[in-house]
């Protein structure tokens, strides 16, 4: 299951990014809930949203679709979305699908 932890958004400093930490599997069983949670996070985000992938153990096409959809929504809201700390399998998946060019990475 995917778990989301965010910094307290009620007191978010607009000069600092909002960071979301994901863990577990992002798949057909968890992607709908993840989408809802990320959309809610966008509503309270600063101008930069970073999705930390360091604890994601699996991601399927549904999970990638969530990331692409959230990026599109973020752009429409004037929010920059970036991914951070993907595990090697996730980096390969983003590379193979060409999404590494469209989903920026931060170090």
From TrEMBL:
Organism domain of life: Bacteria
Q: Which Pfam families does its entry note? A: STAS
Q: Name one GO molecular function term.
A: anti-sigma factor antagonist activity
Q: Where is the signal peptide?
A: none
- NCBIfam families associated with the record: ant_ant_sig (TIGR00377)
Protein family according to the UniProt entry: Belongs to the anti-sigma-factor antagonist family.
The protein's name is: Anti-sigma factor antagonist
């Amino acid at each position: 299951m995917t778990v989301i932890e965010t910094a307290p958004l009620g007191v978010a400093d607009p000069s600092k990014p909002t960071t979301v930490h994901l863990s577990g599997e992002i798949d057909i069983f968890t992607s709908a809930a993840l989408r809802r949670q990320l959309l809610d996070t966008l509503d309270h985000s600063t101008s930069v949203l970073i999705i930390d992938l360091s604890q994601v153990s699996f991601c399927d096409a549904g999970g990638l679709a969530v990331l692409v959809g959230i990026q599109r929504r973020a752009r429409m809201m004037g929010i920059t979305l970036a991914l951070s700390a993907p595990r090697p399998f996730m980096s390969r998946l983003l590379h193979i699908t060409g999404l590494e060019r469209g989903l920026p990475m931060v170090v």
